[in-house]
Amino acid sequence: MNQASDFRQQRRAGMAAIAVAAAVAAALWFAIDRLTPPIAGMEMLAARMVFALKCWAAAVLFCLVGGVEAVAHERLTSPAFDPLAGYETKRLRVNQRYLQNTLEQTVVFAAALFGLAAYAANGSGMRAVVATTVVWILARFAFWIGYHRSAAMRGLGAPSMALSMLVLIYVVARFGGELAGWAGAAAVVAAFLALEGVLFWATSRKQEGGT
Fold first, then answer.
1. Above pLDDT 70, what percent of the chain?
2. What is the pLDDT of residue 5?
3. DSSP 8-class letter at 62
4. Domains held by the chain: number
5. Containing domain of residue 112, as a range?
């Protein structure tokens, strides 16, 4: 099997994993948002911010700190104890990549979570914050476990970034609406979609130039 054929096979497997994970994540998010009881005492903005901070802390503990600990344990029990020795196992490399990816996504997730809490009107609206936190944590674990299976299976964790991005779009669209009504909200969404379009176009151009 040549490299191009192997890439296409992995991409198909990865896209299938993303599709399955997205369906499960959406079902879980809506179940938590619709079926769980409202969070008490969430009428004031300060209370919602504190609650969001607690949710973020839980996500950081389980996902980011978990990754730090995984890398630390790998180093403590192998010649990788000396980072300059150049000793790396596949397991260590995967854990390092999970840690780096989670560090990046934690920043995006935090902005989305606090923005969502800011626009939640009450305890019923704050169920979306809980749903977002639970799905994000589980998706991070799915990414981690899947990555240890194969590069394609890390697609199981795609809902974490997708969810953060969708929540951020919602938050910034609400902000745009405050500034300029529906036109401001539409402009924000259109600008982001244009950015995505440029990125896809630039990537496709590069791929065409490389073939």
1. 95
2. 65
3. I
4. 1
5. 3-158
132 located within any domain: yes
Gap between the Cα atoms of 161 and 135, Å rounded:
11
d(CA 70, CA 74): 6
pLDDT of residue 88 exceeding 70, the answer is yes
Cβ atoms of 125 and 105 within 8 Å: the answer is no
Q: How far apart are CA 189 and CA 100, in angstroms?
A: 28
Torsion angles phi and psi, residue 180, rounded to 5: -145, 30
Phi, psi dihedrals of residue 121, rounded to the nearest 5°: -80, -30
For residues 200 and 21, what is the distance between their CA atoms, to the nearest angstrom? 23
* CB distance 117 to 51 below 8 Å: yes
What's the predicted TM-score (pTM) here?
0.92
Instruction: Tell me what pLDDT residue 84 has.
Output: 79
Is residue 168 in some structural domain? no
C-alpha distances (whole Å) from 170 to each of 35, 99, 103, 164 are 22, 27, 22, 10
Rounded Cα–Cα distance for residues 70 and 80 (Å): 13
Residue 15: inside a domain: yes
Domain holding 23: CATH number? 1.20.120
Would 186 be classed as within a structural domain?
no
The answer to whether residue 211 scores a pLDDT higher than 60 is no
Does residue 122 have a pLDDT over 90?
A: yes
